[in-house]
UniProtKB/TrEMBL annotation:
Species of provenance: Rhizobium johnstonii (strain DSM 114642 / LMG 32736 / 3841) (Rhizobium leguminosarum bv. viciae)
Pfam family, one: APH
InterPro entries: Aminoglycoside_PTrfase (IPR002575), Kinase-like_dom_sf (IPR011009)
Identification of the protein by name: Phosphotransferase family protein
Domain Aminoglycoside phosphotransferase, first and last residues per copy: 16-196
Gene3D superfamilies: 3.90.1200.10
């Protein structure tokens, strides 16, 4: 039997380990079984679409934790290039990759709209007036039927050029690509604020989208993120959502 190898990466919800030639993503105990099957189902759908995502090999319990056995991503992380390279080149490369995801039909994936409605309804830090305003605003925005990654940022992209692999598809969904780009904006706004708007403008230029159409989703995406337990971002997220901290 193959032994679990060295730690390759660690996040809020899971850790990734070497497992022979493959990678083993082990979720933390709180939601490990449900999350494992959810991500495996998402990856199975993406495999049919020939997107640069890892192929699932198994779902199971490993040393008392549930996880997904999948293809191992290249060692190099796109974030290194994104952080160290000035100018538009890394922005354009990431936006091209993002667009290639959005070109695919999202049939079979969870609804992004339904997820946003559910998360805004249960976001504890919103007052009732802000919550009602945000839900009405969400109701007015156009739904979509494209694949959305749900958590795309430079640290979830590995490799380079034709060898890219995008990881962490737990939150993949079917929806409006502009909402997915706005999600990336919110993530970059916290981690790399000087690049966040540049990325939105690059994606908009590349796809013929309107920057205003992407930012129309900002209050909703920020409010929904309040349910993710990122306490150090709460005040910033409330401001982006148009609610008082």
């Amino acid at each position: 039997m193959i032994e679990i190898g060295r730690l390759l990466g660690s996040g809020k919800e899971a850790e990734v380990f070497e497992y022979g030639a493959l990678a083993l993503k082990l979720y933390r105990p709180a939601a490990s079984k449900a999350s494992s099957f959810r991500e495996a189902a998402n990856l199975s759908i993406l495999e049919r679409l020939a997107l640069p995502a890892p192929k699932v090999h198994a779902v199971g319990e490993f040393d008392g934790r549930w996880g997904v056995l999948m293809d191992r991503a290249p060692n190099s992380c796109f974030a290194d290039q994104f952080v160290s390279t000035a100018g538009r080149a890394p922005l354009e490369e990431m936006a091209q990759l993002h667009r290639s995801i959005h070109e695919k039909p999202g049939d079979g994936l969870p609804s992004l709209m339904a997820r946003l409605f559910a998360r805004i309804r249960r976001a504890e830090h919103l007052d009732s007036s802000s919550r009602n305003r945000l839900l009405a605003q969400l109701e007015s925005l156009p739904d979509g039927d494209r694949v959305c990654h749900g958590d795309l940022h430079p640290w979830n992209i590995h490799g380079s050029g034709q060898g890219f692999m995008i990881v962490d598809w737990l939150d993949a969904c079917c929806g409006n690509p502009l909402a997915d780009v706005c999600r990336t904006y919110v993530l970059l706004h916290h981690a790399m604020p000087d690049r966040a708007m540049d990325y939105v403008e690059t994606y908009a230029s590349l796809t013929g989208s309107e920057v205003s159409g992407i930012l129309a989703w900002l209050p909703l995406i920020a409010a929904a993120r309040l349910t993710e337990g990122v306490v150090n971002e709460n005040d910033e997220l409330l401001r982006l959502a148009g609610a008082s901290p």
